[in-house]
Design brief:
There is one protein chain. The chain is mainly alpha-helical. It folds into two domains: 150 residues, no CATH class; 74 residues, no CATH class. Helix content is 74%, strand content 0%. α1 packs antiparallel against α5 and α6 packs antiparallel against α7. The protein starts with 20 loop residues before the first helix and ends with a helix.
Length: 251
Protein backbone atom coordinates (compact mmCIF):
# COMPACT_ATOMS: atom_id res chain seq x y z
CA UNK A 1 0.00 0.00 0.00
CA UNK A 2 1.37 3.39 -0.99
CA UNK A 3 1.79 5.87 1.85
CA UNK A 4 -0.48 8.40 0.14
CA UNK A 5 -3.13 5.91 -0.97
CA UNK A 6 -6.73 6.23 0.11
CA UNK A 7 -6.51 2.96 2.02
CA UNK A 8 -3.93 4.47 4.36
CA UNK A 9 -6.74 6.52 5.90
CA UNK A 10 -8.25 3.34 7.32
CA UNK A 11 -5.26 2.98 9.69
CA UNK A 12 -5.97 6.26 11.50
CA UNK A 13 -6.85 5.82 15.16
CA UNK A 14 -10.18 7.47 16.02
CA UNK A 15 -13.49 6.67 17.74
CA UNK A 16 -15.18 6.15 14.35
CA UNK A 17 -12.47 3.75 13.17
CA UNK A 18 -12.90 1.73 16.35
CA UNK A 19 -16.61 1.07 15.81
CA UNK A 20 -17.77 -2.32 14.60
CA UNK A 21 -17.96 -2.37 10.80
CA UNK A 22 -21.50 -3.79 10.86
CA UNK A 23 -22.75 -0.74 12.74
CA UNK A 24 -21.06 1.62 10.29
CA UNK A 25 -22.54 -0.22 7.30
CA UNK A 26 -26.04 -0.17 8.81
CA UNK A 27 -25.79 3.52 9.74
CA UNK A 28 -24.55 4.47 6.28
CA UNK A 29 -27.32 2.55 4.53
CA UNK A 30 -29.98 4.06 6.80
CA UNK A 31 -28.69 7.56 6.14
CA UNK A 32 -28.54 7.03 2.38
CA UNK A 33 -32.08 5.63 2.32
CA UNK A 34 -33.29 8.66 4.26
CA UNK A 35 -31.62 10.97 1.73
CA UNK A 36 -32.66 9.18 -1.44
CA UNK A 37 -36.28 8.39 -0.54
CA UNK A 38 -37.27 11.97 0.26
CA UNK A 39 -38.18 15.04 -1.80
CA UNK A 40 -35.35 17.45 -2.70
CA UNK A 41 -33.61 18.70 0.41
CA UNK A 42 -34.33 22.24 1.54
CA UNK A 43 -31.51 24.59 2.43
CA UNK A 44 -31.82 24.02 6.20
CA UNK A 45 -31.95 20.24 5.79
CA UNK A 46 -28.93 20.23 3.47
CA UNK A 47 -26.96 22.45 5.84
CA UNK A 48 -27.70 20.32 8.90
CA UNK A 49 -26.98 17.10 7.03
CA UNK A 50 -23.69 18.45 5.71
CA UNK A 51 -22.74 19.58 9.22
CA UNK A 52 -23.47 16.10 10.59
CA UNK A 53 -21.40 14.34 7.92
CA UNK A 54 -18.50 16.75 8.23
CA UNK A 55 -18.65 16.35 12.01
CA UNK A 56 -18.38 12.56 11.69
CA UNK A 57 -15.43 12.98 9.31
CA UNK A 58 -13.77 15.37 11.78
CA UNK A 59 -14.25 12.93 14.68
CA UNK A 60 -12.70 10.25 12.47
CA UNK A 61 -9.71 12.59 11.91
CA UNK A 62 -10.07 12.28 8.15
CA UNK A 63 -8.79 14.98 5.76
CA UNK A 64 -11.95 16.91 4.87
CA UNK A 65 -10.52 18.40 1.67
CA UNK A 66 -9.56 15.00 0.34
CA UNK A 67 -13.00 13.58 1.09
CA UNK A 68 -14.68 16.53 -0.62
CA UNK A 69 -12.57 16.08 -3.75
CA UNK A 70 -13.33 12.37 -3.85
CA UNK A 71 -17.06 12.86 -3.37
CA UNK A 72 -17.16 15.59 -6.03
CA UNK A 73 -16.16 12.98 -8.63
CA UNK A 74 -19.78 11.81 -8.73
CA UNK A 75 -21.13 15.24 -9.68
CA UNK A 76 -20.29 15.17 -13.44
CA UNK A 77 -22.18 11.88 -13.83
CA UNK A 78 -25.10 13.08 -11.73
CA UNK A 79 -25.17 16.41 -13.58
CA UNK A 80 -25.74 14.63 -16.90
CA UNK A 81 -28.94 13.13 -15.50
CA UNK A 82 -29.90 16.20 -13.50
CA UNK A 83 -29.79 18.57 -16.47
CA UNK A 84 -32.14 16.39 -18.54
CA UNK A 85 -34.46 15.15 -15.77
CA UNK A 86 -36.67 18.29 -15.83
CA UNK A 87 -37.58 17.51 -19.46
CA UNK A 88 -39.11 14.19 -18.50
CA UNK A 89 -41.00 15.77 -15.62
CA UNK A 90 -42.49 18.59 -17.70
CA UNK A 91 -42.90 16.69 -20.95
CA UNK A 92 -40.93 19.34 -22.83
CA UNK A 93 -39.12 18.99 -26.13
CA UNK A 94 -35.55 17.75 -26.31
CA UNK A 95 -34.07 21.08 -27.35
CA UNK A 96 -32.80 24.30 -25.80
CA UNK A 97 -36.28 25.87 -25.69
CA UNK A 98 -37.78 22.82 -24.01
CA UNK A 99 -35.00 22.73 -21.45
CA UNK A 100 -35.42 26.45 -20.70
CA UNK A 101 -39.18 26.08 -20.23
CA UNK A 102 -38.77 23.04 -17.98
CA UNK A 103 -36.28 24.93 -15.82
CA UNK A 104 -38.61 27.92 -15.64
CA UNK A 105 -41.36 25.61 -14.42
CA UNK A 106 -39.42 24.47 -11.38
CA UNK A 107 -37.01 22.09 -13.04
CA UNK A 108 -34.10 23.56 -11.09
CA UNK A 109 -35.52 21.94 -7.95
CA UNK A 110 -35.37 18.52 -9.60
CA UNK A 111 -31.79 19.19 -10.69
CA UNK A 112 -30.81 20.28 -7.18
CA UNK A 113 -32.44 17.19 -5.70
CA UNK A 114 -30.49 14.81 -7.93
CA UNK A 115 -27.15 16.57 -7.43
CA UNK A 116 -27.51 16.95 -3.66
CA UNK A 117 -28.64 13.36 -3.11
CA UNK A 118 -25.81 12.02 -5.27
CA UNK A 119 -23.20 14.05 -3.40
CA UNK A 120 -24.49 13.29 0.11
CA UNK A 121 -24.71 9.57 -0.70
CA UNK A 122 -21.21 9.53 -2.19
CA UNK A 123 -19.76 11.41 0.78
CA UNK A 124 -21.37 8.99 3.24
CA UNK A 125 -19.94 6.00 1.38
CA UNK A 126 -16.48 7.58 1.21
CA UNK A 127 -16.48 8.22 4.97
CA UNK A 128 -17.42 4.57 5.48
CA UNK A 129 -14.63 3.36 3.18
CA UNK A 130 -12.08 5.72 4.73
CA UNK A 131 -12.85 4.66 8.30
CA UNK A 132 -13.05 0.88 7.79
CA UNK A 133 -10.32 -1.44 6.59
CA UNK A 134 -11.19 -3.45 3.50
CA UNK A 135 -10.82 -6.83 5.22
CA UNK A 136 -13.02 -5.73 8.15
CA UNK A 137 -15.60 -4.30 5.77
CA UNK A 138 -15.79 -7.54 3.80
CA UNK A 139 -15.94 -9.62 6.98
CA UNK A 140 -18.80 -7.44 8.25
CA UNK A 141 -20.70 -7.95 4.99
CA UNK A 142 -20.25 -11.68 5.38
CA UNK A 143 -21.53 -11.55 8.97
CA UNK A 144 -24.51 -9.55 7.74
CA UNK A 145 -25.38 -12.54 5.51
CA UNK A 146 -24.50 -10.90 2.19
CA UNK A 147 -24.09 -13.71 -0.40
CA UNK A 148 -20.52 -14.99 -0.57
CA UNK A 149 -20.30 -14.45 -4.32
CA UNK A 150 -20.85 -10.71 -3.88
CA UNK A 151 -18.37 -10.51 -1.03
CA UNK A 152 -15.80 -12.37 -3.13
CA UNK A 153 -16.38 -10.02 -6.07
CA UNK A 154 -15.98 -6.96 -3.87
CA UNK A 155 -12.81 -8.35 -2.31
CA UNK A 156 -11.13 -8.80 -5.70
CA UNK A 157 -12.31 -5.40 -6.89
CA UNK A 158 -10.87 -3.78 -3.77
CA UNK A 159 -7.57 -5.60 -4.23
CA UNK A 160 -7.06 -5.11 -7.95
CA UNK A 161 -8.14 -1.48 -8.05
CA UNK A 162 -5.09 -0.87 -5.90
CA UNK A 163 -2.95 -2.89 -8.31
CA UNK A 164 -4.24 -0.87 -11.26
CA UNK A 165 -3.56 2.41 -9.46
CA UNK A 166 -0.03 1.27 -8.60
CA UNK A 167 0.74 0.38 -12.21
CA UNK A 168 -0.71 3.67 -13.43
CA UNK A 169 1.46 5.55 -10.94
CA UNK A 170 4.56 3.70 -12.22
CA UNK A 171 3.71 4.50 -15.83
CA UNK A 172 3.21 8.18 -15.07
CA UNK A 173 6.57 8.37 -13.29
CA UNK A 174 8.29 6.58 -16.17
CA UNK A 175 6.70 8.89 -18.75
CA UNK A 176 7.60 12.01 -16.78
CA UNK A 177 11.21 10.87 -16.38
CA UNK A 178 11.72 9.86 -20.02
CA UNK A 179 9.68 12.52 -21.80
CA UNK A 180 9.16 15.46 -19.45
CA UNK A 181 8.30 17.86 -22.30
CA UNK A 182 5.81 15.59 -24.06
CA UNK A 183 2.49 17.38 -24.55
CA UNK A 184 -0.28 18.08 -27.01
CA UNK A 185 -0.76 15.68 -29.92
CA UNK A 186 2.34 13.68 -29.07
CA UNK A 187 0.98 12.96 -25.60
CA UNK A 188 -2.41 12.08 -27.06
CA UNK A 189 -0.84 9.63 -29.55
CA UNK A 190 1.04 7.91 -26.76
CA UNK A 191 -2.14 7.41 -24.70
CA UNK A 192 -3.17 4.32 -26.70
CA UNK A 193 0.12 2.53 -26.15
CA UNK A 194 0.14 3.56 -22.50
CA UNK A 195 -3.37 2.14 -22.01
CA UNK A 196 -2.34 -1.16 -23.61
CA UNK A 197 0.83 -1.28 -21.53
CA UNK A 198 -1.18 -0.56 -18.40
CA UNK A 199 -3.58 -3.43 -19.13
CA UNK A 200 -0.80 -5.95 -19.79
CA UNK A 201 1.27 -4.95 -16.77
CA UNK A 202 -1.77 -4.95 -14.47
CA UNK A 203 -2.87 -8.36 -15.73
CA UNK A 204 0.58 -9.90 -15.26
CA UNK A 205 0.99 -8.41 -11.80
CA UNK A 206 -2.51 -9.54 -10.85
CA UNK A 207 -1.59 -13.11 -11.83
CA UNK A 208 1.57 -12.95 -9.72
CA UNK A 209 -0.35 -11.58 -6.75
CA UNK A 210 -2.97 -14.31 -6.99
CA UNK A 211 -0.32 -17.02 -7.16
CA UNK A 212 1.39 -15.48 -4.14
CA UNK A 213 -1.92 -15.46 -2.26
CA UNK A 214 -2.46 -19.14 -3.03
CA UNK A 215 1.05 -20.03 -1.88
CA UNK A 216 0.37 -18.27 1.43
CA UNK A 217 -2.79 -20.23 2.14
CA UNK A 218 -5.52 -18.13 0.54
CA UNK A 219 -8.79 -20.07 0.69
CA UNK A 220 -11.25 -17.54 -0.69
CA UNK A 221 -11.60 -15.20 2.28
CA UNK A 222 -9.37 -12.32 3.30
CA UNK A 223 -7.97 -12.30 6.85
CA UNK A 224 -9.73 -9.92 9.21
CA UNK A 225 -9.21 -8.74 12.72
CA UNK A 226 -11.04 -10.39 15.56
CA UNK A 227 -14.80 -10.18 15.23
CA UNK A 228 -16.07 -7.15 17.07
CA UNK A 229 -19.22 -6.86 19.09
CA UNK A 230 -22.14 -4.48 19.03
CA UNK A 231 -21.85 -2.31 22.11
CA UNK A 232 -23.41 0.93 23.36
CA UNK A 233 -21.26 3.06 21.03
CA UNK A 234 -22.41 1.10 17.97
CA UNK A 235 -26.06 1.27 19.04
CA UNK A 236 -25.78 5.03 19.57
CA UNK A 237 -24.14 5.46 16.17
CA UNK A 238 -26.87 3.50 14.36
CA UNK A 239 -29.66 5.27 16.28
CA UNK A 240 -28.19 8.66 15.38
CA UNK A 241 -28.21 7.70 11.70
CA UNK A 242 -31.75 6.33 12.00
CA UNK A 243 -33.08 9.46 13.69
CA UNK A 244 -31.31 11.68 11.16
CA UNK A 245 -32.80 9.72 8.25
CA UNK A 246 -36.25 9.89 9.85
CA UNK A 247 -35.92 13.64 10.44
CA UNK A 248 -34.91 14.21 6.82
CA UNK A 249 -37.78 12.07 5.55
CA UNK A 250 -40.49 13.46 7.83
CA UNK A 251 -39.51 17.09 8.26
Amino acid sequence: MHATSFESLTYILSPIHGLDARAKIAATLLLICGIVLTPPLRAVEALLLASLMLGVAAIARLPIGRLLRRSAAVLPFAATIALLAPLQHSGGSWNAAGLASSWAGGGWMITWGILSKAWFSAFAMIVLAASTRSADLLAALRRLKVPDVFVMLLSFIARYVGVLASQLRSLRIALASRAPHLSGRALLRSSGSLAGNLFVRSYERGERIYQAMLSRGYTGTLPASAAGRIGPAEVLFVMTALLTAAAVALY
